[in-house]
Amino acid sequence: MQMRALITGASAGLGAEFARRLAADGFSLVLVARDAERLEALAATLPVAIEVLPADLTTEDGLELVAERLADAARPVDVLVNNAGFAVAEPFHASAIADERRMHELLAWVPTRLAHAALPGMRERGRGGILNVASLAGRLPSGTYSAAKAHVIALSRSLAAQYRSDGVVVTALLPGFVATEFHERMGVAPTSVPRAGWADASSVVRDGLRGLRTRRAVVIADWRYRLAAPIIPFIPDRVAASFGLGGRTS
Q1: Which CATH number does the domain housing residue 173 bear?
Q2: What is the pLDDT of residues 100-149, one digit of tens each?
Q3: Domain residue limits at 172
Q4: 145 an active-site residue?
Q5: pTM (2 d.p.)
Q6: Catalytic residue among 145, 163, 177, 225
Q7: In what order do the strands lie in the sheet with 218-220?
């Protein structure tokens, strides 16, 4: 029986890389993003059955469309990849509050809603996986993006502990800086971060899927960031805040 994965934010960056990797592993795919044209272009390059599902997850209609697809018992989804995201570039005091709300809903509420939709079917089948793309920023006090990603980490750990005995694996993937369109849209040029600090999208995706297969609740992507992670709890908040990572990682 062919397994099926649903990927949000699938039109570019990590989402597209997840699609390519899972297709190579033999999964059929449900690709979710706002841009139907880009989804169709990606689907045309993948040698597996593809369902293109255009949806704006920051709207109730778009979110519920995807939630209903996840709950469809006739077409079960075995793996959910919550990857969609964006960040607010401005510092908190200067940002538009509507943008802050959209960001928090997309980064925190959307994975919660979609996991809630996927879990009943996964539990009934006795198997399933949910991979939530969080961020190493979720462990730093460096902006409201970090606060939203901290929610994703806590959500993932909670669900992993609660549903492990039901055969459902939940993993939070914590990337650092990854060279994707995400940072271009943020206005973060590759030259603004040392070259050694940029991880490759393919390695980040590989780490995330390996963590899901090995039933790990939290995975830090890329060996460089895994080496740095133990130091984070010892960095004073005022120093960590000055890193400017809020809205600029993963």
Answers
A1: 3.40.50.720
A2: 999 999 999 999 999 999 999 999 999 999 999 999 989 988 899 999 99
A3: 4-241
A4: yes
A5: 0.89
A6: 145
A7: 50-54, 28-33, 4-8, 79-82, 128-133, 168-174, 218-220
